[in-house]
Amino acid sequence: MTSNPLAKHKLTILYGVSLALLLFLLKWLELKLMIVNHAYEAYIGAVAIFFTTLGIWISLKLTKPKTVFVEKAVYINQSPGFTINQTELDKLGLSKRELEVLQLMAEGLSNQEISERLFVSLNTIKTHSAKLFEKMEVKRRTQAVEMAKRLCIIP
Amino acid sequence: MTSNPLAKHKLTILYGVSLALLLFLLKWLELKLMIVNHAYEAYIGAVAIFFTTLGIWISLKLTKPKTVFVEKAVYINQSPGFTINQTELDKLGLSKRELEVLQLMAEGLSNQEISERLFVSLNTIKTHSAKLFEKMEVKRRTQAVEMAKRLCIIP
DNA sequence: ACCGGGCTCATACTTTAGGATGATTTTGAA
DNA sequence: TTCAAAATCATCCTAAAGTATGAGCCCGGT
């Protein structure tokens, strides 16, 4: 998202600093325990436990969540209380005017009638409908209407 | 799944045995390196690297995959409990074939496609559709489909 | 056997829809 | 302000839809 190079490598820098601090801690521990030589095994154990934990933590942080797509069938009851499916509408990326044309198409109007209704020329409606079909990936107005109704874009 | 208590803790036991073997290895390495005291830091480093790797491996093995459930709606056009309005259908006086053509029209098929679907010629479909429009008192196929849906003649 | 309706198909024609492309203006967001 | 998308309109052309009319075939009812 942010193009800031510092922010981009924030995590890497953090890891580096953490490791540096860790090395200091280890050195200190080492010197301290050198005196009490009996605690040598304990030192090794502590190192082992610490790095095991570190490894676990790192992998937990770095593993990307595995996404599982679950298809869920949804029956749409469109007659009582129709609400337009904004999600599907956005997915198609239709413009305001294109949607208007689509709605009038669904009412069974011809391009000529639509152009008169919207006070624009017939050619404009043709352009709109062409872009409409392209976006909806259909070939005919009847298909567009059928699809729009199935996706609950129009009542 | 299996109710066998041994199998149930097979993984735990395996880890335990592995750790025991590991401790032996460490002890051996320790003794070996004690002679060459200069390699002490290298030993610590090896332990650190090994246990980091071990930690990563363990967490990768043990963590359940993080699943992100994405609901993907599959829209089913046939609303459950659609009943054709026989009264309105009779009122129109459509023949069996004309109704078939109307249904395929509603699916967005062209006359050509309908003719191929019904194994008849394009001209036949044109004749049917013309009679259809006359009986339904509409001018275009889009109007016919809109009317048919509104009258619950087709889903 | 005869008749009518449904189904089929054909020809000829007009209208509408749709595709491809280019241009201009408006407008909304960065 | 500047830039991209949206909206507008045009021309040229092809494909599809729709109209009109006529004709042959089959099936069920009278």
TrEMBL record, chains A, B:
Which terms under GO biological process does the entry name?
Answer: regulation of DNA-templated transcription
Where does the HTH luxR-type domain lie? 87-152
Q: Which CDD domains match?
A: LuxR_C_like (cd06170)
Report keywords, A-Z. Answer: DNA-binding, Membrane, Transcription, Transcription regulation, Transmembrane, Transmembrane helix
InterPro entries per record: Sig_transdc_resp-reg_C-effctor (IPR016032), Tscrpt_reg_LuxR_C (IPR000792), WH-like_DNA-bd_sf (IPR036388)
Give me the segments passing through the membrane.
12-30, 42-60
Q: Name one GO molecular function term.
A: DNA binding
Name of the protein described by the UniProt record: Regulatory LuxR family protein
Per the UniProt record, the source organism is Mucilaginibacter oryzae
